[in-house]
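Is this the right way to post structure tokens for a design question? Let me know if I should format differently. Anyway, here goes:
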């Protein structure tokens, strides 16, 4: 059992400990600092921060509810494989929710929101020259800003709760396609919101969120041990036609 994949940051003693432990462990799993099958120990994790085992146990239970670990009686806690079906379900639900979000924004285009989004696009482009791994945090910020601007904070929280497995795939895929392509897709979404075209904004966000589907077979082939695959075989997902525009 090991905590080797954990890059521990100091905990805030004035705040609840378990959520902080959960957040750091979740980040380590999503960034694939742990591999599927790795065992993590309550005692080792607790010792990392010199805390009791109870908040660590609570963090493990929450991670298990997200499908990131499996708590096995008499065998400890194990990092799970990435559920292929969970990735597709999360992407499907995210597309449905965010397509409506950008359509709402395009019907009431706000110059303040557009300015904020364009500043974020510049920050995304800048991070490519420093650490592309940081792009995913900026990507989440971009999509969260869309939800906040549309008054759909609750919808974004729902998305965050569903996309843990999808996020693991995103980190695996960072080296497989140019981040600039994703930034250009973000720009297309912002452009269509700014001109007040809900239909094309809807199509742009759908095309963007389907990017992972085109790369998924290659990611699966390169990292077969990371995935729980149906029948143990690599499926070939097929894109459905994009509503609100042409399927490019």
């Amino acid at each position: 059992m090991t905590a080797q994949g954990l890059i521990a940051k100091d905990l805030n003693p004035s705040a609840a400990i378990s959520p902080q432990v959960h957040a750091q462990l979740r980040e380590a799993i999503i960034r694939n600092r742990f591999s599927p099958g790795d065992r993590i120990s309550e005692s080792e994790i607790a010792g990392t921060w010199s805390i009791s085992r109870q908040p660590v146990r609570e963090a493990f239970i929450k991670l298990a509810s997200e499908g990131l670990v499996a708590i096995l009686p008499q065998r400890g806690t194990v990092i799970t494989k990435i559920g292929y079906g969970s990735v597709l379900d999360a992407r499907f639900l995210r597309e449905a929710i965010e397509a409506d979000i950008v359509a709402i924004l395009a019907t009431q285009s706000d110059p303040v929101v557009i300015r904020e989004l364009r500043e974020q696009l510049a920050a995304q482009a800048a991070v490519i020259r420093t650490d592309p791994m940081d792009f995913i945090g900026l990507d989440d910020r971009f999509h969260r800003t869309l939800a906040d601007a549309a008054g759909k904070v609750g919808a974004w929280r729902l998305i965050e709760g569903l996309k843990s497995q999808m996020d693991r795939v995103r980190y695996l895929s960072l080296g497989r396609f140019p981040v600039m392509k994703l930034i250009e897709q973000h720009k297309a979404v912002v452009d269509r919101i700014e001109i007040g075209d809900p239909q094309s904004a809807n199509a742009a966000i759908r095309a963007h969120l389907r990017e992972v589907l085109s790369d998924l077979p290659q990611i699966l082939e390169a990292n077969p041990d990371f995935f729980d695959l149906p029948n143990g075989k690599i499926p070939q997902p097929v894109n459905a036609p994009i509503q609100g525009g042409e399927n490019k």
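Format looks fine. Someone answered above. Worth noting: The chain has two domains: 17-80, 83-232. The mean pLDDT is 88.
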